[in-house]
Design a protein that fits this description.
CATH architecture of the largest domain in chain B: Orthogonal Bundle
Strand order of the largest sheet of chain A: 1-2
Oligomer: heterodimer
Shape of chain A: globular
CATH class of the largest domain in chain B: Mainly Alpha
Number of helices of chain A: 14
Radius of gyration of chain B: 25 Å
CATH topology of the largest domain in chain B: ABC transporter involved in vitamin B12 uptake, BtuC
Strand order of the largest sheet of chain B: 1-2
Order of helices and strands of chain A: HHHHEEHHHHHHHHHH
Structural class of chain B: mainly alpha
Number of strands of chain A: 2
Number of domains of chain B: 2
Strand content of chain B: under 5%
Helix content of chain A: over 70%
Largest sheet of chain A: 2 strands, antiparallel
Number of helices of chain B: 17
Helix content of chain B: over 70%
Number of strands of chain B: 4
Structural class of chain A: mainly alpha
Order of helices and strands of chain B: HHHHHHHEHHHHEHHHHHEEH
């Protein structure tokens, strides 16, 4: 019970962080048709900016200014990079962001060094929030959940309740019509791209000190975010939300369960020894398999339901 | 329409043209073979031979990748899965040969790698090729990550962190070829490289190769004509995985070690960069790309730690401004050479090139200065670059870098319009003479 509650909470907080990342990716994809490979790089930039700002003036200003800096970077990338490549089609845009991911990673190494930087949780948020029997639930995890949820609520209200949101929603499906009505669709695109980047940056600010801030953090999170987007259904925000939580919970629970298929067979009286055919597969414990599970889920999803959980269009 | 009419009226001339093209083909392939034979004699140092061997392997790998990207329009982010898994199967077979359990001449080991790669192509390709476009790209990325993550789960097959090492000098030596000396390995790689190149070129001329082009350009129409696009993609994927496996088998012989990195994202990304930089629109584009990539990854990486930054920058510039790759730049000059007008372009090219070189020098100086100060400052801040020694912490090198940036940018701003102007003039003249000819 104790294990279950703590894992559940950890899984949800990780899942919400994933959604903060994948929501930006989904918005950018459904609007511009661009699969942003550099999205996780913005996450990394957010963490590094926050580390530098927090070092100088403290964590709270960093929470505000680091995402704003990433917003600026995102806007510049869209204006001077993506817009140039746009005329060559989606593959070129995809490749541009792919190259950009290399550049940002190498740039980060150049500026901050190759090792992980000591980006720490602020002392106010350090320590346990409450105890479930003997296990502690850290304050910072709760703070992460709070930031993610309030940010996502804000985005939801912005998209559905404001004029800007309506224009963005309209530009998602009918860019020509919106342009004909006198809106600057190019600028809306820039706004969405920069906004998505800023969301990723915010995820970096609150995720960087909870996990690790190193040049490899983009690559480790990037593919998981892609899995989320595929499993949830390309371009579906609701799907991305469900898939984020699902994968967050899956990964959190899997690392702490030490059972394997051979244990399951043991229940039925079948015992696996090293002489059994494919014994190394049956003896793998779930915790050993944890890193592969999201990808396995994606492959199964693509076979069973190719458009994802809540996707509306095929391919 | 015009050309077909001309062909029907002038059969003899058309035939002559055909024979001419045939001859050009033979000439190009013989020249390639000759280059492969002669190059290791010209550059006979150990480093050069190693470089050439890696180029041969990279060429096969990049060409097999271009079967997907260039010929069939499939952007894969997990191609190293096939070369890597092919390499793992090959290394186990080679160890079997060494233990006397399997009989196989080492020269045929790449074939084992190829079959291994194709096997996984059959397996994974079934899932990945269900989709085209962006979804395909993401699935391949996921499969690549899955294989990489599972490499640590099965230490028996993947050898865990350290990988699996082997010894290539085993089995029966045919004609006294033991593959002990590196030169023998190079010639084996060269032979397989030439064979694979010819096979892959021939494939582009087969019906499947042509339909793959159709599926790339207009999948809907290809389906209306009656082809199952998914099946075409699947078949191409298997073939491509086969050739990728061959390159994997060759890398086993060359390096005598295979580790999880062989299936990793760095390899997959590398082959994508190589192919696109070279130019995916032309058959020989990936060859150029592979050679450039190996120069970057092997030669440049021994000079500077920031080689990946330079490579990434080069790639982004190519994507932004020369989407056809280096090959398209070269092919644009061919009509000019044919019309004997390349000389007219050379002055403006030279101006642009010198401005570009100044910019490059500025870039290298700035990057190396930052690198020295940020990462390598423990060993002092003095450094040498291109024979000049200076102190990275002093103001002087930074001033030089700034001056170079300024001069390069100004030069580029003036040189680029010159190139455009000269290009437009020459094109107009060529159009005029062509119009006058008819």
């Amino acid at each position: 019970m104790e294990f279950f509650v703590i894992s559940l909470l950890n899984g949800i907080s990780y899942g919400l962080l994933l959604f903060l990342l994948s929501s930006g990716l989904t918005l950018i994809f459904s609007m511009m048709g661009v699969l942003n490979f550099a999205h996780a790089s913005f996450y990394m930039l957010g963490a590094y900016f926050a580390y530098t700002i927090a070092d100088r003036i403290g964590f709270w200003p960093a929470l505000v200014f680091a995402p704003l800096l990433v917003l600026l970077v995102g806007a510049l990338v869209e204006r001077f990079g993506l817009r140039t490549v746009h005329k060559y089609g989606h593959v070129a845009e995809l490749l541009f962001t792919f190259g950009l991911a290399y550049l940002i990673e190498e740039g980060v190494k150049l500026v901050w060094g190759q090792a992980a930087v000591p980006y720490r949780i602020p002392p106010v948020l350090d320590g346990p929030l409450f105890h479930v029997f003997t296990s502690a639930f850290p304050k910072y995890r709760a703070f992460m959940m709070l930031v993610s949820v309030s940010m996502l609520l804000g985005i939801y209200l912005l998209l559905t309740r404001t004029r800007v949101g309506l224009v963005i929603q309209a530009a998602l499906t009918h860019p020509q019509m919106v342009e004909a009505l006198g809106h600057n669709v190019q600028r809306v695109f820039m706004l969405v791209f920069a906004g998505g980047a800023a969301l990723a940056g915010l995820a970096g600010v609150i995720g960087g000190n909870a996990f690790v801030t190193a040049p490899s953090m983009a690559a480790s999170v990037g593919t998981i975010v892609f899995v989320v987007v595929v499993v949830g259904g390309m371009g579906s925000l609701g799907g991305a939300f469900v898939a984020s939580l699902l994968i967050g919970l899956l990964q959190t629970f899997a690392v702490s369960i030490d059972a394997s298929l051979s244990d399951l067979f043991g229940v039925f009286g079948l015992h696996v020894t090293s002489a059994t055919l494919l014994s190394s597969i049956w003896k793998l414990s779930l915790s050993q398999m944890a890193p592969v599970l999201p990808y396995l889920l994606m492959v199964v999803m693509l076979i069973v339901r190719p458009r994802g959980l809540m996707g509306t269009r095929e391919g | 329409m015009k050309t077909t009419m001309q062909q029907s009226y002038e059969p003899a001339a058309a035939q002559g043209r055909h024979a001419h093209r045939q001859l050009a083909h033979y000439a190009i392939w013989s020249f390639t073979a000759l280059m492969m034979l002669v190059l290791p004699l010209c550059f006979s140092s150990r480093f050069a031979i190693a470089l050439l061997s890696q180029m041969g392997i990279a060429i096969i790998f990049a060409l097999s990748y271009n079967m997907l990207l260039g010929q069939s329009g499939m952007l894969s982010f997990g191609h190293a899965v096939y070369s890597g898994l092919g390499a793992f199967i090959a290394v186990h077979v080679l160890n079997g040969v060494g233990a006397g359990k399997v009989w196989l001449p080492v020269s045929l080991l790449p074939l084992v790698g190829g079959l291994g790669g194709a096997l996984f192509g059959v397996l994974f390709g079934y899932v990945t090729t269900k989709k085209a476009g962006t979804t395909f790209a993401m699935i391949t990325l996921g499969i690549g990550e899955m294989v990489y993550a599972s490499s640590l789960m099965f230490p028996d097959f993947f050898g865990g962190e350290g990988g699996i090492s082997t010894d290539r000098v085993v089995g029966h030596a045919v004609f006294g070829i033991t593959y002990g000396p590196e030169r023998q390995v190079y010639y084996l790689i060269a032979a397989w490289c030439l064979l694979s190149m010819i096979a892959m070129y021939a494939w582009t001329q087969t019906p499947l190769g042509r339909i793959a082009n159709a599926v790339r350009d207009n999948p809907e129409r290809a389906e209306f004509v009656g082809y199952d696009t998914q099946r075409v993609r699947y078949l191409v994927m298997i073939l491509s995985a086969f050739f990728a496996g061959i390159s994997g088998g060759l890398s086993v012989i060359n390096f005598e070690i295979v580790s999880a990195e062989n299936v990793g994202a760095v390899q997959s990304g590398g082959v994508l960069l190589a192919t696109f930089i070279g130019g995916s629109g032309f058959f020989f584009g990936p060859v150029i790309g592979a050679v450039l990539y190996v120069l970057f990854a092997v030669a440049l990486s021994s000079l500077t730690h920031a080689w990946l930054l330079y490579l990434g920058l080069f790639f982004v510039l190519i994507v932004m401004f020369v989407p056809g790759g280096v090959a398209s730049l070269l092919m644009k000059q061919v009509p000019l050479i044919a019309a004997r007008k390349l000389g007219r372009m050379l002055p403006s090219y030279a101006a642009a090139l010198s401005a570009g070189l100044i910019l490059l020098a500025a870039l290298i100086l700035s990057v190396e200065l930052i690198y020295k100060l940020q990462i390598d400052s423990d060993n002092g801040t003095t450094m040498t670059l291109a024979g000049f020694g200076f102190d990275a912490a002093s103001l002087k090198p930074w001033a030089v870098a700034a001056a170079l940036w300024l001069a390069g940018a100004l030069g580029w701003r003036t040189a680029l319009p010159r190139v455009h102007r000269a290009w437009d003039d020459v094109q107009a003249e060529m159009a005029e003479t062509a119009g006058g000819g008819v």
